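Run log, item B.
One chain of 121 residues. Sequence copied directly from the ordering sheet:
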Amino acid sequence: MAEVTLHATPHATPAAHAEGHQHPIKLYLVVWGWLFVLSTCSYLVDYFNLQGYLRWSLIVVFMILKAGLIVAVFMHMAWERLALAYAILLPPLVLLVFVGIMVFESDYTLLSRIIFFKTGA
């Protein structure tokens, strides 16, 4: 018969457990500073009256950077296992790819309808 050995793991005290999960306040202050800078940049896009694709591209880039900081630090995703991060972050990225494909398809469909109804074929 095979003998199974169990290794006892020392249990951490509640104080040590709480201390292991706290991050330095400097980290939060730096992230808040970056969020302030990125929000200021978003405001400056409107202040300088940028228009068109440049405006929307900058707004989306600043929005994604702010969301990434919030998810990484305040939601503690930076310290999670890689598999969990992929399980949470990968599906929205795949959806964005599908939305991009649909945008190109909608342009093609609109163009073909314009040509079809203009010629009356």
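Observations after the first pass:
- The chain has four helices and no strands.
- The longest helix spans residues 82-119.
Flagged for discussion on Thursday.
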